[in-house]
Amino acid sequence: MFFRPVFLASLALLLPLCTPAAEPLMGVFGENSMQRVLNFEKWVGRPVDVILCTIDFQKWENYRYASWLSQTVYGQRGDRRLVYDVPIIIQGTSYAEAKTGAYDEHWKCLAGSILENNPGTYEIVIRPSHEMNGEWFVWGVGGAKASQIPDFIASWKRFHGVFRGVPGGERFRFSFSTTEGASDPRPMWPGDEYVDIVAQDVYWKPKAMGGEGWETNDPKEAWEKRVSPHGYNEWHVAGMLAFAKAHGKPFQIDEWGVWGPDAAPFVEAMAAFLKTNGARSHTYWNSNSSYPGELDQREKEWPKTTQAFKAAFGRAQ
């Protein structure tokens, strides 16, 4: 997905890697609002398993502490686990500096704050520099920023070491969270020992939606383009699933969204794909921020789409 305000986020999953779920766990993007999470749960008819939150990337003094999100916003989350979007670099910084250790103390402070605000022994998923294969975020290294890839890889490795090095850091799990519609992310892979999960962000953007819409208005064709050997590219959904398997990593959909009244076939295909391929999790973008995918307020506007979603995901299968 393209640039979104700092308070927005994406999702991942918190489940022991050695114990795959019988069904993928479900998450929701809640715009850093617990009430929005509760509203979605009421609409879909079941609790979510995880909630995404995002770390500020404007100033280090805001980046360093997770207390506001973990406690003030989501302090009443109960058993729902938080997943953190954590940029490796922020506005005005660089991977060239990051790889030298210039930001180690900021990372260390944040890692400690996340652990402090998540007591227990469960695993905590981190999405370092998510959608790194795009160029719309300050931390992206896709497109015209490709020359930064070596520094990105070196920085990821250092970031990983800092997070794992704090007391309790063994709880962190790192998601290599890519996006479709951008550069090939595979050359950005930092190495098997530095990644725990392979994930992708998937958004159907038909031309009919206007704005960022660029692809076919046929939801069946749109899905087929994501799983066919002759689809959009080699790093589409099926391609990244194959990449995950080749590296012995679990696969999940960190963000996904659909648009319009005719998206039911896409929703149904996603549900089948997740189950058939043993995906670890999926996270729905129930928001109109950056991508107009909100479903819980569109029962009358998009009845077929909303009914398909609730039929597929509205209860633990």
Q: Would you kindly provide a written description of the structure presented here, covering whatever features stand out?
A:
- The chain has 317 residues and is an alpha/beta fold.
- It has a single domain, classed as TIM Barrel (Alpha-Beta Barrel).
- The chain has ten helices and eight strands.
- Strands 1-2-3-4-5-6-7-8 form an eight-stranded parallel beta barrel.
- Residues 2-21 have low confidence and may be disordered.
Record the SSE blueprint.
Blueprint (H helix, E strand, L loop, with lengths): L24 E4 L5 H11 L5 E5 L5 H4 L3 H7 L7 E6 L8 H4 L5 H13 L7 E5 L20 H17 L6 E8 L17 E7 L15 H9 L9 H10 L4 E7 L6 H13 L4 E4 L18 H11 L4
Helix pairs in contact: 5-6, 7-9, 9-10
What's this entry about, in short?
It holds the Pfam family Glyco_hydro_26. The protein is an alpha/beta fold and 317 residues long.
